Prior knowledge:
- This protein is mainly β.
- Helices cover 0% and strands 40% of the residues.
- The mean pLDDT is 96.
Amino acid sequence: MATATYWQRGETIDHKNATDAVIEANTIVVIGKRIGVAGTDIPAGETGSLHVTGVYKLPKAASTAIDAGALVYWDASANNITTTAGTNVLAGFAAETVAADAATVAVKINA
């Protein structure tokens, strides 16, 4: 029979910064097929925390209206939320309805 060992609660996860630059607090980080939000600055080569639950105001693609409950995706090349899946990473769902001219959208991440 397989067993499990408790590791951590899961609202945040450990993340090793494999880049040569600091990941600044509140930076969106792609982790596989999901996103996380840096909880603090994470120096190059160090391990820090990524928030992987919660609702965050994130920059939104221009000219895109989004309805509450819609699946939304992180476009890493444009650094914004979009409703286009394509090669983008699932971010979660919109926690509010926003008009096309809104600069941000509240997103329940990784839901």
